[in-house]
Amino acid sequence: MNRTVKGLGALFIGATLAASLAGCVADDSPGGGTAAPGGTPTDLACGMATGEAATGDPIKVGAIATASGGVDFSSSPLSAKAFFDCVNDNGGINGRPIEYDFEDDALDPTKTAQLAAGLAGDSDVVALVGDATFVGCDVANVEYSKAGLYSITGVGVPQACFESSNIAPVNAGPRTSALALLQYMEREDLLGGGFYSIGLNTRGNGDWVAAGIRDYADEAGIDLVGETLSDPAESNWLPLVGQIQSSGASALVVADPAPITASILAAAEQQDARGDIAWSCTASCYDKQFASELSDYWDGFLVNSELQLVTATGDDSDLWNGVMDAYASADTPRDTFSQAGFLAAKIFTDTLLAVEDPATLDRETVSEALLAIRGYESSLLCSPWYYGEADEHHANHATRNAKMEGGEWVEVEGCTEVVDPAMDGILEREQSEGLLER
Q1: Which of 7, 190, 194, 368 sits 20 to 30 Å CA-CA off 274?
Q2: Quick one: average pLDDT of 152-166?
Q3: 224-281 pLDDT, tens per residue?
């Protein structure tokens, strides 16, 4: 199941699209790939790339993700698990396998706090990797900071994920993703009739994204002609379509999960409401399936990619695809959030492999190693990633944009820095502390 939300307008979305975007139930079984007689893939350079299974004392790593309760963001920890499985088949961390599991907070911040307290209280857990909670970064960070536990989060969603001392997301986040599209449209002179923003009425998410759009539009002199924050359980999108049409907007962004966006687009297509409007969606829509399941009515539909294009080849793109083919089920999403979980696991692995004595890897030494990460480069990223010791973490703030063309995503703009006045402090810290350099 891929980032589904209750009440997604089944009235408007076709059975094939609904099944593709909202019905992918992942399991943890391997999904193919070239394998040696013992079952280990032979062509994946994971970790030490020894081709031999790690048999030492396990290193325990956890994660919290929202995987039920109406929202499924499990593609991040599922891909992290796939990579760790590959690492374990290739020598682990200097002989020590990674024991990895993630827990579902079921869209309930109270449960998130309970799970976080449990992980923090388990001294065998050395770190968190690939987290993707839709609601709980604030309450989780309280527990982590008390226990000296740190997370390389795959997917940060609400504002608190980027403003926490012990949580550092790999992804750029919905606010940055939405601003990237607005600024692309500004550069392409698509805003003559004004801009319309759409998001979820969820605390620290939709309101945070909308505030960023308002602040930037005000500074740039962009006419913001409409703003809608809808109930996550909304199913009738015809009134919204009518509001968009009557606003006179020439461009818009939908900062909703993919199935909600698909329902909005289906309602708009039913009313032939696309017109001359430049329609777009944040990275929540960016996966291989989404474009292939929309009709050619939506050719030119824009989307933001917080990491590399999912269709890209070479370097870490090849490794990500190979790991997913060999260690994840075929229906586990291949989306930007899967890339983020994979990369979180790879950053963690590469960092621990650099520790000279694997026997010393406990929570304290792992925390020290994570905090020291700076200038980490990957072909999946537009700029180096870092951790560092601070009360906020937002290393990924340069993204790519793509459009739908013939059922596929085609890049329209390569790596571009996203402007957000709220990021000034982070940008200054990057330079003053040399965080972008190894």
Answers
A1: 7
A2: 97
A3: 999 999 998 899 999 999 999 999 999 999 999 888 999 999 999 999 999 999 999 9
Write the DSSP string, 81-98: HHHHHHHHTTTTBTTBPE
Domains identified in the chain and CATH numbers: 15-173+312-398 (3.40.50.2300), 174-309+400-427 (3.40.50.2300)
C-alpha angle with apex 343: 424 to 309, nearest 5 degrees?
80
pLDDT confidence band for 28 (50 / 70 / 90): very low
The per-residue pLDDT of the chain, averaged, comes to 90
Query: Are 122 and 60 a contacting pair, CB within 8 Å?
Result: yes
Proportion of the chain above pLDDT 70, given as a percent: 90
Q: Who contacts 360 (Cβ-Cβ below 8 Å, separation ≥6)?
A: none
Whole-prediction pTM: 0.91
CA 429, CA 261: separation in Å to the nearest integer?
A: 36
Q: What are the structure tokens assigned to 1, written together? A: 């199941």
Cα torsion at 259, 260, 265, 267 (round to 10°)?
A: 120
pLDDT of residue 41: 53
Distance between CA 228 and CA 243 in Å, rounded? 9
Query: Would you call 26 helix, strand, or coil by DSSP?
Result: coil
Measure the CA–CA gap between 213 and 158, rounded to whole angstroms. Answer: 15
Q: What is the CA radius of gyration of the chain?
A: 21
Residue at token pair 């809808």: 230
Q: How far apart are CA 8 and CA 386, in angstroms?
A: 37
Can you give the pLDDT at residue 399?
Answer: 98
Give the integer Cα–Cα distance in Å for 127 and 167: 11
Are 190 and 278 a contacting pair, CB within 8 Å?
yes
Q: Determine whether 15 is exposed, middle or buried from the number of CB atoms within 10 Å of its CB (0-12, 13-18, 19+).
A: exposed
